[in-house]
Design brief:
The protein is α+β, with helices and mostly antiparallel strands. The chain is built from 13 helices and 18 strands.
Length: 501
């Protein structure tokens, strides 16, 4: 286990077997001061009796491939991401290793770094990226460089472990772990919310039965009885019958998805044929075969079918912090940016609109908070919301919740940067963009040196693959207006590729 604190080595307890010593290079760039942090919000709302130390446990769950030799894939709490659609059995060993590496970089380095940057002065637990000492040390350095750009009083304590069984909460003075997502191996740890409830709250099944504004119908496989093979065949046929008979222009979603995975848009007969092949021959057999006695009560193979909303007024991302009593702190409303497959690429925000957007979204935010607190959840939450005039005879807009992300969301950090971008620099538009680029971090910073030195660009997460020389990152970019923001993002795309996060 390794500890970083404010760019220095923290005090070790007698139970710590080794410490990772490094000299972290910190560029002479503006210090980032967030408007608030998750640590501040947790303290403000005093979870339990107000004396409990909460630590964030940051990683992304995967049900297709083990990210490292020491971290197993999820088999109980099933999540469908982009790798779930890949037939790994047919992959060469080289391709399999490449996919595993990509999952490890995204889920154990980029996602945790991004969330750690908004944590504030609290413990944050991350898992080692690789089995080699070089890989592990490099991943730690990358994470530390991210938090070292923050104001000292807003930097988290980074704690690194090889796997959940190695997490030592008592020695670190940690009472509760607020996990980003449900991981099978966390079941014996002191969690702020039990895994079954957390998984349920983020599921489409929960959204369908919550009473919150949404649209779509849920279809659930029947309980498994009789021979397993016959049950699989019957359920695939039944689910596909409902899909193929649905009126065109609809969306199919899996029960639990991450980063846009498990979402299938059907807008034409050709789409239907392609989705039919993908779902019946790959997705559904894989998904249904993983339903077992440990997770059947969670209905992990449920599907949601919903009519596609044509020309929505807005595709919004609401972020807030929910207290134990259901009271919500509004953080931001952003515009979602997705690729053609509906994978999240990033978000944009207009800071001058936040006051009016808060007024408009407060009613639905309060409903979300009340429902979550009823189930015992407190902490950060994101909601993907479509605004349309669907079903309104008077033409007035309405909100439909598409996804409820009961965790830190990708757009949360933009909501904490209003002071940095808008108030102190007059940059009233900002974007979060995920990229890969064939250059090191320092070379990338030098390419846009004036933008970084002026605080117009900030790195929210970064991982440089030392073998290939390719870097993956998430950037926060500010500009005076929307046109200028588009121009800045276009300049970045001249040397970098946009990727799903």
């Amino acid at each position: 286990m390794y500890i970083h604190r404010y760019g220095k080595v923290a005090t070790a307890t007698p139970f710590v077997t080794s410490l990772y010593l490094t000299t972290v290079k910190i560029e002479c760039l503006p210090e980032v001061i967030l408007d608030t942090t998750l640590a501040t919000l947790y303290k403000q709302y005093k979870p339990t009796d107000g004396t409990k130390q909460v630590a964030l446990l940051l990683y992304a769950a995967n049900s297709e491939i083990a990210p490292t030799s020491k971290l197993a894939r999820n088999t109980k709490y099933l999540y469908q991401d982009s790798t779930f659609s890949t037939t790994l059995e047919d992959c060469s060993s080289e391709k399999h290793e490449s996919i595993q590496r990509s999952v490890a970089v995204k889920y154990l380095s980029l996602v945790p770094q991004h969330d750690a940057s908004e944590a504030g002065d609290m413990p944050v637990i991350l898992f080692d990226l690789g089995s080699s000492e070089t890989d592990s040390n490099h991943s730690k350095e990358e994470a530390q460089r991210i938090v070292s750009s923050l104001a000292i009083e807003q930097r988290p304590t980074l704690l690194f472990f090889s796997n959940p069984m190695k997490i030592s909460t008592r020695e670190q003075g940690i009472d509760l772990l607020a996990a980003k997502m449900e991981f099978d191996q966390l079941e014996d740890l002191p969690l702020a919310l039990d895994l079954d409830t957390h998984y349920f709250l983020s599921s489409k099944a929960a959204l369908c039965t919550s009473g919150l504004p949404r649209h779509g119908n849920m279809t659930i496989p029947s309980d498994c009885t009789g021979p397993r093979g016959q049950w699989l065949k019957t359920q695939i046929n039944r689910l596909m019958s409902q899909i193929t008979s649905h009126t065109l222009l609809f969306v199919v979603k899996n029960q639990q998805t991450f980063a846009g995975g498990g979402t299938f848009v059907v807008s034409s007969q050709q789409d239907l044929l392609e989705r039919q092949d993908t779902l019946s021959n790959r997705i559904l057999p894989k998904l249904l075969s993983q339903v077992n006695s440990s997770n059947a009560h969670l209905k992990p193979a449920s599907l949601i079918l919903r009519e596609m909303i044509i020309d929505p007024i807005g595709d919004w991302g609401l972020t807030c912090f929910v207290s134990r009593s259901g009271e919500c702190t509004f953080l931001a409303v952003t515009r979602q940016v997705v690729d053609p497959s509906k994978a999240w690429i990033g978000s944009t925000i207009t800071y001058t609109d936040q006051d009016s957007l808060e007024t408009r979204f407060t009613p639905i935010m309060q409903k979300i908070g009340a429902w979550l607190s009823k189930h015992g959840y407190y902490g950060p939450c994101g909601a993907d919301i479509l605004e349309s005039r669907r079903g309104r005879s008077n033409g007035s807009p309405q909100f439909d919740i598409v996804d409820l992300n009961v965790r830190t969301s990708g757009s949360l950090v933009l909501g904490l940067m209003k002071g940095h971008f808008s108030k102190r620099r007059g940059l009233h538009e900002a974007s979060s963009i995920s990229i890969n680029v064939e250059m090191a971090r320092d070379a990338f910073i030098r390419t846009f040196e004036s933008k970084f030195r002026e605080g117009q660009m900030v790195i929210a997460s970064w991982y440089e693959d030392l073998t290939s020389g390719v870097s993956y990152g998430n950037l926060l970019v500010g500009a005076q207006d929307r046109k200028s923001l588009q121009e800045e993002v276009a300049r970045i795309k001249e040397i970098a590729s946009e990727v799903s996060f």
